[in-house]
Design goal:
This protein has about 110 residues and is mainly β. Helix content is about 0%, strand content about 55%.
Length: about 110
């Protein structure tokens, strides 16, 4: 079955950086659109960034210019590099794989605080 395992979350000061990783298994990784979503306490889950199998990307306005999504199809891994982090980026970040249906990882906590 499809499994998505995220890592790389943690506590970081405002202005700092983190890189999230998501390793996929049980799927033909290269044909899936991969995405990162986040959910802050009391808020709905929102799309942060996505990357298609061909490498096209799209970002939420709130993270454009600060976050970069990338993928390594040979390693079945998608990354989210987050720079210039702000307290409002604090959330649980979820990896998502989409083709016909959606698959989700378990989430990784990112906390931006001084």
């Amino acid at each position: 079955q499809v499994q998505l395992v995220e890592s790389g979350g943690g506590l970081v000061q405002p202005g700092g950086s983190l890189r999230l990783s998501c390793v996929a298994s049980g799927m033909i990784f290269g044909i899936y659109t991969m995405a990162w979503y986040r959910q802050a306490p009391g808020k709905q889950r929102e799309l942060v960034a996505l990357i298609t199998g061909g490498g096209s990307t799209n970002y939420a306005d709130s993270v454009k210019g600060r976050f970069t999504i990338s993928r390594d199809n040979a390693a079945d891994t998608v990354y989210l590099k987050m720079d210039s982090l702000k307290p409002e980026d604090t959330a649980v970040y979820y990896c998502n794989a989409f083709r016909i249906g959606h698959f989700w990882g378990q989430g990784t906590q990112v906390t931006v605080s001084s």
